[in-house]
Amino acid sequence: xxxxxxxxxxxxxxxxLHTYNRYQIVLDRGEGVYLYDIEGKKYLDFAAGxxxxxxxxxxxxxxxxxxxxxxxxTHTSNYYYNVPAIEAAKRLKAASGMDRxxxxxxxxxxxxxxxxAARKYAWLKDGKADHEIIAMNHxxxxxxxxxxxxxxxxxxxxxxxxxxxxxxxxxxNDFDSVAALVNEKTCAVILxxxxxxxxIYPATEDFxxxxxxxxxxxxxxxxxxEIQCGMGRTGYLFAWQKYGVKPDIMTAAxxxxxxxxxxxxxxxxxxxxxxxxxxxxxxxxGGNPLACTAVATVLELFEKECIPAHVREVxxxxxxxxxxxxxxxxxVRERRGAGLLQGLELDRPVGPVILxxxxxxxxxxxxxxxxxxxxxxxxxxQENVDEMIGILETCLEG
Length: 398
Ligand SMILES: *Cc1c(COP(=O)(O)O)cnc(C)c1O
Fold this sequence. Notes:
- The protein is an alpha/beta fold.
- It is 40% helix and 18% strand.
- It is built from 14 helices and 17 strands.
- The strands form four sheets. The protein has a seven-stranded mixed beta sheet, with helices on both faces. A four-stranded mixed beta sheet has the order 1-2-3-15. The protein has a four-stranded antiparallel beta sheet with strand order 13-14-17-16, with helices on one face.
- The protein is globular and about 65 Å long.
């Protein structure tokens, strides 16, 4: 490695808190589906900053919209209205069919808001403060205390206990395990429509439909976390749209801003009218004009460029190529996923494969120890998929 890059990495490690074991490259710029490090080495990017850069790097319309907004106004606080937030909220409503939007600065914050809305809804009904939320094993909802408390990974959670309390964990895609935890205190069920960090597990239609029916019967709120699987990644703007199951509350982030930090939680009118009211929740930055320009522009471009339809087409091709790869390599246990959210489970840790790929100019990430995760920019082409498979194949052989 060149001396300059090595020196930068040493500087980073002496200044930043060591909460990540980072790959040993310093990224500099991006173009389409390619990234370049500061030495000019080119990488095909199948990680997209963890499912963030849906439109790829350097989209002219997106960049120009942000630059223009920077020159106008980037922040107002929520004491006043601003046009980009109005535009972004209208577009999100139209895209999701949900009724009310609250903008946050991150995914974890969107989950926090969803939890507060669910607790307040239940509190308004019976005045009690002991409501329970059912979450899933192997789930991931973020690192803040509330989001962490509903994250079904003891390794992330245990050092920071006690969490917010009254959380029960069921098994994903096992309806009976959910039903067994329901009681008169249950106020919400929270799950990812496709589990991301936990290893790329899509919900079965049967599971989601039964949970929806159970929630309807008992007036329990269904919270779907669409932070990773939403925004077109599965071939539908939101993954639940494929199942015909609609949540009461939904979270979004990651690709919603395509690189500008922003998230949102949305709810139907029933929850909107009977949960968070003036003074109940807030944020200084959330919904600022810069972040909302990103959201509004991303949604506009998704529509104009028919991104979900493109994802269905390229996603099917990625599935086919990964299935072929799996058939030819004994170390591959299974391919799972939907659209451009795919996972390849190996019979061994995937760390060495990802490092070998990086060396050869391909950026991949894992989802747990044994799963390679494929979350490229949604604009990838079949040729990009072929290029990725070509490199990955040589890394699996080694
Ligand atoms: C990434 C992620 C989060 C957390 O989002 P942050 O922006 O990192 O706080 C929550 N839920 C899911 C499903 C995620 O993939």
